[in-house]
Amino acid sequence: MASSILNNIPYSILDLATVLEGHTASDTFKSSLEIAQQSEKLGYKRYWFAEHHNMAGVASSATSVLIGFIAGGTKTIRVGSGGIMLPNHAPLIVAEQFGTLASLYPGRIDLGLGRAPGTDQVTAMAIRGENFNAVHNFPRDIDRLHQLFSADNRNSNVRAIPGEGLEIPIWILGSSTDSARLAAEKGLPYAFASHFAPAYFEQAISIYRNNFKPSQFLNAPYVMACVNVVVADTDEEAEILASSVKRMFLGVITGRREQLKPPVENINAYCDQLEKEAVEQMLFYSFIGSVDTIKSNLEDFVSKYGVDEIMGTSHIYNHQAKLHSNKLFAEAFVQS
Predict the structure, then answer these.
(1) Quick check: helix, strand or coil at residue 302?
(2) Which residues pair with 147 in a beta bridge?
């Protein structure tokens, strides 16, 4: 069998700890652990959570707690944040939290950082208070984190214990070109949110690569693209399963953010033409279909953009169908 371009591409998972309609956050966390354990066996490289707040269908608000839960239930897979919204937190607190995680699970913790609030403006105000404009401190706060993690910080008046002297990889996350310039300037790996912000993907990774400055952390640019994934035994079955994520994005567009709903056979019955087009635009980088279909599409994607790693996020209502999708997605990267 001919080798695939995907055989040398690491594959990972982004989990939003999606709460299903009729279920609880507790149910979600148990499901996440089962998926993480399965992913470890299937050769996935990372299992990341994203910080979000005030969303009925997303239970990943206490991101570092979930990272510890998953790392404690697995043995080898890297676990981390995709990401921690740094303006919501003091760098010292983040350093202490991730220093604790890295001390408990050495060599397995990633710290992905974003600058968005991860919520609406009213909730962002409740989180940040007088530090509402802390987003402008994002570049400086990243430098502060590197300082706190450095062994050279041992003589400072402010130290991260634990955290100091630990090698915790820091990633810059982004959905715009601003983050690309920052990641390039600081010589850090770059993860782009193409699963919901496809419009800037191509431009952002081009800016990142063209402006990258080698650093003590990274010698060459490293791009990870996050994409939507729904895989099933047939294209038709995958399309039905994908109606759940389409309804979720419809809720984002219309402001009706609810728990993840069961799949439906006719998604057009739930939206008008303009709403449908808006959803399809947001889901532009989605891989939906059988394993043969998504493998072909992924090969084209990697060939066109030259990404170094693929991170899939799957909003599938049925847990067994999600486990099956996770298995089939891994098969696309492993030569049989």
Answers:
(1) helix
(2) none
Confidence of residue 54 (pLDDT cuts 50, 70, 90): confident
Question: How many angstroms separate the CA atoms of 17 and 80, rounded?
Answer: 13
By C-alpha distance, which of 271, 262, 270 is closest to 21? Answer: 262
Please enumerate in sequence order all residues whose Cβ is within 8 A of that of 62, keeping only pairs 6 or more positions apart, or say none.
Answer: none
Residue identified by tokens 């490293």 is 222
Q: Which amino acid appears at position 178 of this protein?
A: D
User: Which pLDDT band holds residue 135 (cuts at 50, 70, 90)?
Assistant: low
Mean pLDDT of the chain: 92
Bigger pLDDT: 53 vs 321: 321
Neighbour tally for 112: CB within 10 Å = 27
pTM, entire model: 0.93
Structure tokens at 251: 């809720």
**Residue matched to tokens 């640019």:** 221
- 117 falls in which pLDDT band (50, 70, 90)? low
In which band, very low, low, confident or very high, does the pLDDT at 47 lie, cut at 50, 70 and 90?
very high
* 5 pLDDT above the threshold of 60: yes
* C-alpha to C-alpha distance for 26 and 284, rounded to whole angstroms: 31
Q: Which is nearest to 298 in space by CA: 9, 3, 18?
A: 9
Q: Please give the C-alpha separations between residue 119 and each of 115, 127, 201, 214, in angstroms, as whole numbers.
A: 11, 10, 21, 33
CA distance 78 to 88: 24
Separation of alpha carbons 11 and 198, rounded Å: 19
pLDDT at residue number 273 = 85
Query: Whole-angstrom distance between the N-terminal and C-terminal Cα of the chain?
Result: 8
CB neighbour list of residue 306: distance below 8 Å, 6 or more residues apart? 223
Give the torsion sign (CA, 138, 139, 140, 146). Answer: positive
Whole-angstrom distance, CA of residue 137 vs CA of residue 139: 6
The SS3 assignment for 120 reads: coil
CB 69 within 8 A of CB 34: no
Task: Go through the chain and tell me how many residues it has.
Answer: 336
| 269/130 Cα distance (integer angstroms) | 44
